[in-house]
Amino acid sequence: MPTVLVTGGAGFIGSHLCGRLLGEGNRVICMDNLITGKISNISHLEGNRDFKFIKQDVTEYIDWKEDIDYVLHFASPASPIDYAKFPIQTLKVGSMGTHKTLGLAKAKGAKYLLASTSEIYGDPLVNPQKEDYWGNVNPIGVRSCYDEAKRFAEAITLAYHRTHKIDTKIVRIFNTYGPRMRKNDGRAIPNFINQALKGEPLTVFGDGRQTRSFCYITDLIEGIYRLMLSSINEPVNLGNPQELSILESAKLILSLMGSQSQIIYKELPVDDPKVRRPDITKARKELGWEPKVGLEEGIKKTIEWFQNGT
Ligand code: UDP
Questions:
Q1: For ligand 1, is residue 191 a contact (CB within 6 Å)?
Q2: How many CA atoms lie within 13 A of 186 on its CB side?
Q3: Which domains does the chain have, with CATH numbers?
Q4: 146 noted as active-site residue
Q5: What per-residue confidence (pLDDT) applies to 175?
Q6: For the chain, N or C: smaller number of CB within 10 Å?
Q7: Distance, CA 45 to ligand 1 centroid (Å)?
Q8: Does 78 sit in the ligand 1 pocket, CB within 6 Å?
Q9: Phi, psi of 79 (to 5 degrees)
Q10: Residue 243 and residue 215: Cα distance in Å, rounded?
Q11: Which tens digits make up the pLDDT trace of 55-89?
Q12: Which atom of ligand 1 is nearest to the CA of 276?
């Protein structure tokens, strides 16, 4: 039975990943310092004897005596309001946390998978973004704590691959949504759904013409699982290429909820990317992967989850 360490395992994506890995017959060690993760995301797994939760900040030395077959590094604040609140922790977990987890993978002879992000493309000047695009990142802006930490994380991951021959993988995750996002995590989809549920106006930032492409969580997890088992060492984009404006996404949520809430416009956050859409040719070709859950279907499931008062 392979043993997998998932850092950030009590977060939105990490907890879905832990569940999937247990279902595939792995032993899972879930590590999280709970600054943005939540115990309630993993409480359904805690009765499983192959699951173990350890509360730890992964920027500290990781002392683990037994064998580990895979290290999956998913720990990091990931929502713009979270990393604005925890900029130093975000920089540390992307840099020191990646270094510590790579060191652990090296010591254990484990395979390694880094959760990277579409944010490494910054405010992209080409759309859609392919893996060979170098990006357009402000190195000192308010988003730089996340963007630059993840760019460093990719660089050190490939340095460990080239120098120490570790079998590393890098997933660049585009906007993902679904059950277990925090109500107040500040991102567009949970914000709009929770504003509509409370009968409050939906807050669209800027003129709402900026675009995003939203991927449902189960599709993302399938792609990550395939990448983990693959032999691809270079970064792979995973996301849903269906692109829409933020205003369209707010209107879609209102119509799916039959909500009478108004839309109000607020100031656009600094360095908010104007467009974002993954080119997933590589994932299609090399992983045989593409998203299966349409936007309406995924948003309906997410609305249901928030309605059930989680
Ligand atoms: N956004 C918005 N209203 C909100 C939350 C977000 O208009 O209440 C916009 C935000 O400015 C961005 C897009 O929605 O253009 C996606 O933002 P999110 O925070 O979900 O993630 P990002 O893709 O920026 O990392």
A1: yes
A2: 12
A3: 3-177+214-241+278-287 (3.40.50.720), 188-211+243-276+295-307 (3.90.25.10)
A4: yes
A5: 98
A6: N
A7: 31
A8: no
A9: -95, 140
A10: 10
A11: 999 999 999 999 999 999 999 999 999 999 999 99
A12: 23
